[in-house]
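Lecture notes, part 5. Sequence design as translation. It can be helpful to think of inverse folding as translation between two languages: the language of shapes and the language of residues. The source text, in structure tokens, appears below.
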């Protein structure tokens, strides 16, 4: 592992697991080289150790192209490829940017908010803690975050929530992460 994985109050096993799974999927889908995966890993661990947000697929787009206007096409192509590697296959949700921010849910479940913010994986809707929807540009991140949310809700509320995951396009993801996580 990278030296950036040293103990940090902001870095959790969910961060590490999400990054490991994303890296493996990037390699399996042939969208990143070993060197790019190492660079992305170092960047993500560095950000998370400093309590900053980081999304591996976004980091890959930034490595691949200096022109941010090109991120959308690359991320959409890669997201579709990654979606075929997760079960169940995640549908796209082009309408997601119009959804309301679940501020009450985030306030009630601050650890979920903090993990969602750091992984850049917003909660799209909730019915208390029983039914939740979340999304990301990275289907792998969404899947791991859903597992983390399920574990947290099960442990703290004693219920097994129903969680739906969707793929966000770059524009929706960018809008939602700014709307949800910039306080």
């Amino acid at each position: 592992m990278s030296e950036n994985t040293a103990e940090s109050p902001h870095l959790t096993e969910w961060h590490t697991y999400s990054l490991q799974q994303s890296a493996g999927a990037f390699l399996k889908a042939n969208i990143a080289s070993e060197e790019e995966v190492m660079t992305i890993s170092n960047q993500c661990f560095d950000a998370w150790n400093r309590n900053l947000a980081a999304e591996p697929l976004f980091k890959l787009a930034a490595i691949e192209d200096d022109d941010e206007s090109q991120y959308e096409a690359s991320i959409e192509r890669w997201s579709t490829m990654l979606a075929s590697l997760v079960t169940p296959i995640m549908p796209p949700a082009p309408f997601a940017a119009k959804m309301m921010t679940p501020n009450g849910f985030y306030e009630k479940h601050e650890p979920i908010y903090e993990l969602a913010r750091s992984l850049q994986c917003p909660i799209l809707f909730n019915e208390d803690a029983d039914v939740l929807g979340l999304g990301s540009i990275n289907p792998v991140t969404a899947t791991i975050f859903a597992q983390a949310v399920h574990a947290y809700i099960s442990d703290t509320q004693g219920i097994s929530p129903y969680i739906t995951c969707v793929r966000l396009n770059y524009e929706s993801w960018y809008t939602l992460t700014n709307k949800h996580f910039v306080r």
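The translated text above is only one of many valid answers, since several sequences can fold into similar shapes. The chain has two domains: 11-78, 96-181.
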